[in-house]
């Protein structure tokens, strides 16, 4: 399954009534409203029809993000379980994806989850227990873990931003590396027990790539996100000029995020002149598992991918 180039893209969430629906695609949200997939299923179907029409195989889709949607939280800030509307939206989503001949890589958590101390304890408390794994991940896997529509699970998006030994801004550090390794290992074990899908982690920096090759994560493929900035050439390593083999990893390497256009970027970022065609050529010629540009919906300053440029 991992021996050939995977044609993928970052979805990464829907747009509802003109607003980015980050973290709210599945189940009710913390504002007691419902903007999940089933609330605008035709919009989502149109999106996947367009991606399928561009011969894309996998869409990377964020699931629980920072905990704002799909999870029933008690008044005391503890996880009670999955929101009842979660299953309605997930059923609708998987039906749409399957009908379009695609698969999904579900990003289970975003690094923003770690900003809330109570939410961090829900992942792994002082006794080594995890309400998230017991009351969210396990019920999800019980129902959907064997779905052939799920290509892979990205356990955490860009955890390096909030891990003491990896973070570039140490004020953001929320966990030591040992704690991340423990939690990720527990999560991977749960997934292995109830799913045949591949496992990865969305590494935020190329420079940290070797961390994800540690056996504790039990990954099927390693993932890096590449957003070079010409004003800060030494802030991160580059994938350009390197084959996947040059990183000397034990697993296949995916470029899981990259800009889709060199001239579309935030005001505080200056991308080099690499085009999407350059990234795709790098993946093909350099032995990478693929390159999944950011993003189909174009809900941030990096803009939307031109599907015609996907080749």
Q: How would you sum up this structure, described in words?
A:
It is a single chain. The protein has 311 residues and is an alpha/beta fold. It has one domain (8-310): Glycosidases (TIM Barrel), CATH 3.20.20.80. Helix content is 25%, strand content 17%. It has helices at residues 41-53, 84-99, 117-123, 131-144, 177-194, 276-286, and strands at 8-10, 15-16, 19-20, 58-62, 71-73, 79-82, 103-110, 150-157, 198-203, 222-225, 253-257, 290-291. The strands form 3 sheets. The protein has an 8-stranded parallel sheet with strand order 1-4-7-8-9-10-11-12. Helix 6 links the parallel strand 11 (253-257) and strand 12. Helix 1 runs parallel beside helix 2 (84-99) and helix 4 (131-144) packs parallel to helix 5 (177-194). It is globular and about 50 Å long. The model has no long low-confidence stretch (mean pLDDT 97).
């Amino acid at each position: 399954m991992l021996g050939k180039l995977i044609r993928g893209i970052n979805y990464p969430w829907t747009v509802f009534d003109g607003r980015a629906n980050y973290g709210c695609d599945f189940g009710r949200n913390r504002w007691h409203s419902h903007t999940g997939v089933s609330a605008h299923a035709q919009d989502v179907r149109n999106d996947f029809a367009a991606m399928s029409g561009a011969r894309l195989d996998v869409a990377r889709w964020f699931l629980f993000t920072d905990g704002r949607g799909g999870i029933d939280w008690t008044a005391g800030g503890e996880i009670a379980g999955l929101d009842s509307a979660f299953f309605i939206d997930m059923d609708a989503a998987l039906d749409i994806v399957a009908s379009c001949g695609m698969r999904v890589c579900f990003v289970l958590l975003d690094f923003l989850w770690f900003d809330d101390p109570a939410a961090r304890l829900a992942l792994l408390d002082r006794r080594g227990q995890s309400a998230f794994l017991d009351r969210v991940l396990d019920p999800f896997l019980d129902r959907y873990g064997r779905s052939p529509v799920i290509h892979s699970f990205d356990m955490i998006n860009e955890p390096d931003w909030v891990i003491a030994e990896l973070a570039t801004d140490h004020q953001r550090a929320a966990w030591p590396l040992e704690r991340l390794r423990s939690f990720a290992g527990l999560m991977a074990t749960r997934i292995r027990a109830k799913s045949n899908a591949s496992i990865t982690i969305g590494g935020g920096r190329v420079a940290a790539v070797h961390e994800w090759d540690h056996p504790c994560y039990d990954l099927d493929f390693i993932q890096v996100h590449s957003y070079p900035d010409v004003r800060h050439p030494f802030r991160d390593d580059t994938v350009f000029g390197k084959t996947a083999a040059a990183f000397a990893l034990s697993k296949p390497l995916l470029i899981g995020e990259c800009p889709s256009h060199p001239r579309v970027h935030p005001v505080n970022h200056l991308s080099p002149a690499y085009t999407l065609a350059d990234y795709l050529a790098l993946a093909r010629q350099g032995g990478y598992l693929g390159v999944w540009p950011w993003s189909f919906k174009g809900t941030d300053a990096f803009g939307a991918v031109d599907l015609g440029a996907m080749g």
